[in-house]
């Protein structure tokens, strides 16, 4: 069995003080991140979007199969079609599909079936997961697809915030309409719909609190 060539790891060791400084700086920046539903129409360059997606593409993946595809949408007509299809599903969700407990959990966020941000945001990035690969006429398996694409999306959110932009991780359900509208191949399944841009001036967000470190951390240490 052929093996890939190995190359030296590019790794730079830094002093612990610098590690802590970088970690605190990144945490402080991440703690200011909020999901945004009110976007300015201010444009975002495709060069910047490409860099953000390239960062997402550095994520680890099962057997290095990189089972993701990022589709950039900035055409007003396409965004309008996507909004119309998303609102059709979401209206049904809010009216019939979602149980009362789910609606109660959403109430503090002030969300509704209306998704204006899908048109006002200058860019939509639609993330697809590749269930399998097409190599000619042969189907090839991908591994840990959900986990791999989830990690890539996490990197993308961090990269967007780091670049001074805002985003929303939107998951209309069901969302097969995205594959149809964007004419994607059958091996790709919609995973996430992400509006990206600048917050509208005067944007307000829910006054929510994240769990404390003690709530999310557990110790299992040696004596």
Task: Describe the protein.
The protein has a single domain, classed as 3-Layer(aba) Sandwich (NADH Oxidase). The protein has helices at residues 16-31, 46-56, 76-97, 100-106, 117-120, 145-162, 177-181, 213-216; strands at 68-73, 123-130, 132-135, 138-141, 166-167, 188-197. It has 8 helices and 6 strands. By secondary structure, it is of the alpha+beta class. Strand 3 and strand 4 form a beta hairpin. The strands form 2 sheets. Strands 1-2-6-5 form a 4-stranded antiparallel beta sheet, covered by helices on one side. It has a two-stranded antiparallel ribbon with strand order 3-4. Helix 2 (46-56) crosses helix 6 (145-162).
Classified in CATH, the superfamily is NADH Oxidase
CATH third-level topology: NADH Oxidase
Number of helical runs? 8
Largest sheet at a glance? 4 strands, antiparallel
Return the average pLDDT rounded to an integer: 95
Strand content: 15-25%
The succession of helices and strands, N to C, reads HHEHHHEEEHEHEH
Mass-distribution shape: globular
Q: Compute the gyration radius: what is it?
A: 20 Å
Name of the CATH first level: Alpha Beta
Q: How many strand elements? A: 6
Uncertain stretches: none
CATH architecture assignment: 3-Layer(aba) Sandwich
Write down the domain tally.
1
Helix content: 25-40%
Strand order of the largest sheet: 1-2-6-5
* Helix/strand structural class: alpha+beta
